[in-house]
Specification:
mainly alpha; set domain protein methyltransferase, domain 2; Rubisco_LSMT_subst-bd; Ribosomal lysine N-methyltransferase 4; Rubisco_LSMT_subst-bd_sf
């Protein structure tokens, strides 16, 4: 059933099989908002969580579920786990990145410094989004 759901979401342009780009996260507008998560990501997870009968009914109608204004707890749990997995994939912690930047000093134009700044920015967004999820989970 998961393969069918993925194919249906690809047909509806919510998911692209083999998409290396994934879904973007952004800085939340406020700490208690789900604004850091794209509608497509929330829709993707919502469809995967549908039981088979709900999914078949939506598919027959050619529709997708409505994404709730308030983040559903099951969706929030999955998002939180995805963030934890992504953070664990980095070779350094945010504190280690801060130290690396301090060691570089004034030479913030070096490739290494720029790479660490980008990585630290990504980690900051992930942490902010995780903090948003703490309101729900």
């Amino acid at each position: 059933m998961v393969k069918d759901k993925l194919a249906y979401m690809a047909q509806k342009e919510v998911f692209e099989d083999g998409d290396e780009g994934g879904y973007d996260l952004t800085h939340p507008i406020r700490k208690d908002t789900r604004s850091c998560f794209s509608e497509d990501l929330l829709l993707f997870i919502t469809v995967l969580l549908l039981d088979d009968s709900e999914y078949r009914q939506l598919k027959r109608q050619g529709k997708l579920p409505r994404v709730e204004t308030v983040l559903q707890i099951d969706v929030a749990k999955i998002l939180k786990r995805l963030i934890e997995v992504r953070v664990a994939q980095y070779p350094t912690t945010a504190d280690e990145d801060q130290k690396l930047l301090a060691d570089v000093g004034d030479d913030t134009t070096s490739r290494k410094a720029m790479a660490v700044q980008v990585r630290l920015g990504e980690k900051t967004i992930l942490e902010e989004c995780r903090d948003v999820l703490d309101v729900y989970v």
